[in-house]
Amino acid sequence: MAKRSKRLIAIREKLGHRVAGGLSDAVRDVKVYANAKFDETVDVAVNLGVDPRHADQMIRGTVALPHGTGKVVRILAFAKGEKAQEAEAAGADFVGAEELAEKILGGWLEFDRVVACPDVMGVVGRLGRVLGPRGLMPNPKLGTVTFDMTRIIQEIKAGQVAFRVEKTGIIHAGVGKASFSEEHLLENAQTLIEQLKKMRPAAAKGTYIKKVTLSSTMGPGIAVDARTV
Q1: Beta strands in 60-182 (DSSP E)
Q2: Is 18 strand, coil or helix?
Q3: Which pLDDT score, from 0 to 100, does residue 21 have?
Q4: Averaged pLDDT score across all residues of the chain
Q5: Which CATH number characterizes residue 149's domain?
Q6: Residue 152, domain extent
Q7: Is 47 in the same domain as 118?
Q8: Are the C-beta atoms of 178 and 34 separated by less than 8 Å?
Q9: pLDDT confidence of 15, banded at 50, 70, 90?
Q10: Is 7 inside a domain boundary?
Q11: Predicted confidence (pLDDT) at residue 67 exceeds the cutoff of 60
Q12: Per the structure, how many domains does the chain have?
């Protein structure tokens, strides 16, 4: 069992047996306890009433957060010719094709998101076993396989967040930094949750949003009364 730090023990004692409240209460508490020496990321974890083993209950998508994530996102773009130039102009951090694929197969993973033009997916396809498990594989359904390099790169840089349900039915997504105002964190979290509600599959039975928890990188999980969202 992992040993808890004195800092975390003190936070837990202060929280006590706090009754789960609304999302705004959780945002306030997360900011209070995000007191590390760096600007912590605020994460939302949503436990959904779905079974990801069934294709018709797989939840995966993107959402544009109104106030961004506060994180510098490194984008890798697979493109050639004019589209490579377009990707560079749009702000992609790494642009190329075969040479980037070889570099990734060699163990290089210094990027956060991957986009690709359809005409180079033959090259990208070889990377499925590396990018797939990390949720980095370009996907037409997510808009990351497209000839419109400018649009997708600018959307990602502006604060688009990608999410995918885990085997346990939980979705994790960063919704900002602890330095954000309560209002901005709240609006970002609400935007994510509303997007998840819109994506409820017809095959999902019973309670859909079962549990919601907010936390910062080094802080405790703050439970939200799921009925309030």
Answers
A1: 60-64, 75-78, 94-96, 113-116, 160-164, 170-177
A2: coil
A3: 80
A4: 91
A5: 3.40.50.790
A6: 75-158
A7: no
A8: yes
A9: low
A10: no
A11: yes
A12: 2
- Angstrom distance (rounded) from CA 62 to CA 101: 24
- Hey, what are 111's tokens? 């990027």
Q: Dump the DSSP string for 132-145.
A: GGGT-S--GGGT-B
pLDDT of residue 7: 56
Q: Is the pLDDT of residue 20 over 80?
A: no
200 and 125 housed in the same domain:
no
Residue 55 belongs to some domain of the structure? yes
Residue 16 clears pLDDT 80, i.e. is over it: no
16 vs 34: CA distance, rounded Å: 17
List b or e across 176-196, with b for residues whose CB sees 16 or more CB atoms inside 10 angstroms. Answer: bbbebeeebbbbbbbbbbebb
Q: Per the structure block, which two tokens stand in for 33?
A: 């306890």
Asked if 46 contacts 26 with a C-beta cutoff of 8 angstroms, the reply is no
- Distance between CA 148 and CA 107 in Å, rounded? 28
CATH at residue 191 = 3.30.190.20
The single-letter DSSP state of residue 93 is S
Q: What is the mean pLDDT of residues 117-144?
A: 94
